[in-house]
Specification:
The protein is globular, with a radius of gyration of 16 Å. The longest helix is centred in the N-terminal third of the chain and has 13 residues. The chain has 132 residues and is of the alpha+beta class. A hairpin with a 2-residue loop joins strand 6 and strand 7. It is built from 2 helices and 8 strands, in the order ααββββββββ.
Length: 132
């Protein structure tokens, strides 16, 4: 008999997420990293959370998006690497497992958008998100 592995359905405590968003924007480190690494904004719609990163000095091939449990890691490194071009990186820790959600990304006109679905389930695995 073959058993299918059931995906765990994750329920969201929307009050917790709302509080997390508020704390994220009030955290002084957020402003510091916006200045020293790259700017990030977070948006919420009915169907998804959107992380927007301003990476206008990079090409899509120089950007990596990785999700690991509750963390979204965005890193960028100019090619070829030089003393003038340092790796830039930001990590956002969510109050829920983003690996359990469908995550997609686009990069257009220097803006990276990472879409984390509220309704569509992901693979539950840590993974790189491919940019088109």
């Amino acid at each position: 008999m073959i058993k299918k592995k059931q995906q765990q359905i994750q329920s969201f405590d929307f009050d917790l997420v709302e509080k997390w968003l508020e704390n994220y924007f009030l955290d002084p480190l957020t402003s510091y990293y916006d200045q020293t690494q790259f700017q990030i904004d977070l948006y919420e719609t009915e169907k998804e959370w959107i992380v927007e990163a301003i990476l206008s000095e990079f090409e899509a091939s120089e950007i990596k998006v990785y999700i690991e449990e509750k963390k979204l890691r965005i890193s960028a490194l100019r090619y070829p690497p030089s003393a003038n071009h340092h790796k830039k990186s930001r990590v956002i820790e969510f109050p829920f497992y983003i690996t359990r959600q469908e995550v997609t990304a686009t990069f257009t006109n220097g803006i990276l958008e990472v879409f984390i679905s509220k309704t569509e389930k992901g693979s539950c695995k840590n993974r790189f998100i491919t940019l088109p």
